[in-house]
Amino acid sequence: MTLAPDTAQDPEAGRWHYCPPSPLGLNPLFSWPPRPRAVLDWYSGAWLQVTALTVCFAIAVLAYVVALPPLEQMATVRPGWIIRVWLMNLVPQIIVAGGLHWWLYQRKGQGMQTKFDPRNLARDNGIFTFRNQVWDNMWWTLGSAITVATVYQSVILWVMANGWVPVVSFAKHPVWFVAWMALIPMWSGLHFYWVHRLEHQPFLYPHVHAVHHRNVNVGPWSGISNHWFENMMYFTTYFIHLIIPSHPLHLLFHAFFQQVSPVLSHSGFEKLIANDTQIAKSGDFFHQLHHRYFECNYGTSEIPFDTWFGTFHDGSAEATKRTRAFKKQMYTR
Question: C-alpha 204: how far from its chain's center?
Answer without folding.
Answer: 21
